[in-house]
Amino acid sequence: MSSVLVVGSVALDSVKTTTEQHDNLLGGSASYASVAASFWTPVNMVGIVGEDFPQPFLDLFAKKKIDTMGLQRVPGKTFAWSGEYEQDMNNRRTLSVELNVFEYFQPILPEAYRQSEFVLLANIAPKLQSHVLDQMSRPKFVIADTMDLWINIAREDLCELLKRVDMLILNDSEAKQLTGCTHLISAGAALQKMGPKYVAIKKGEHGCLLFGDKEFFAMPAYPIENLKDPTGAGDCFAGGTIGFLAAGGEVSFKELKRAIVCGSIVASINVESFSLKRLEELDQREINLRYKLMKEFTRFE
Ligand code: AMP
User: Fold this and answer.
1) Which of 6, 86, 118, 282 is the most exposed place for a label (fewest CB within 10 A)?
2) Residue 176: CB partners within 8 Å, gap ≥ 6?
3) How far is the CA of 227 from the centre of ligand 1 (A)?
4) Domain map (residue ranges) of the chain
């Protein structure tokens, strides 16, 4: 079984919904993605935190057997993000971003991580994502995640990165924004022309479209009623996807379909509580049960 290299942000989040507010939560793209991937395979994490980063969060990474040799701990404060959801939780507003130690972050891969075959470049500046690839011999499969911010302020860097990755994950509005296409099937094809062989366009509660080499798969989201905090759903999706692929070691469209179902399921569980609370105690059996149900929900013949 291959381990996965995850690079991204590690954050202290404050999240407000119409009914609850929680501060100093464990957040960040690398935190969510690493914990999600850890259900399938060992994870090596690269990121940065300040001296205020709480020990219980490091303990959680250790409990999930996430190797934090590549998690830099430096003087200063940890990256902090806060956001607020509307009644319709598809709509979120970023209230504040404090870069803190993240401002001067340069991902440095420990020697042991440089041969990793499966890599997730979770959401951080595309220049930093490229810098990670610069330090590696050619991995077997690289997934990149991104966000609207980078499409707005670092489009050129993002386009350079796309030439070097096997799969891009982004949401529907980002896909339209990056390509200028007004519908998603054209956007998927346009993104593939920019570099990645595979593209996954997420549609929130409406699932995901997966584009391959003349292959296409439309996956619904796992149906849940108990939505508490959607933060990190995209990161869990990406983490579950790369974790499943690394565990099997094989990359094909068939395996990718299974992988995004796993990513989607771990995301569907994570959003049932704030931060990573739900994944802390999650048992593989619950993932397996949802996987089985997803098969039933999507079979029509
Ligand atoms: P998502 O809900 O998938 O957009 O991910 C939310 C997570 O992304 C939060 O835990 C934030 O700490 C983190 N985050 C927010 N803005 C950024 C940013 N500019 N770069 C990296 N991570 C971010």
Assistant:
1) 86
2) 182, 184, 187
3) 18
4) 4-298
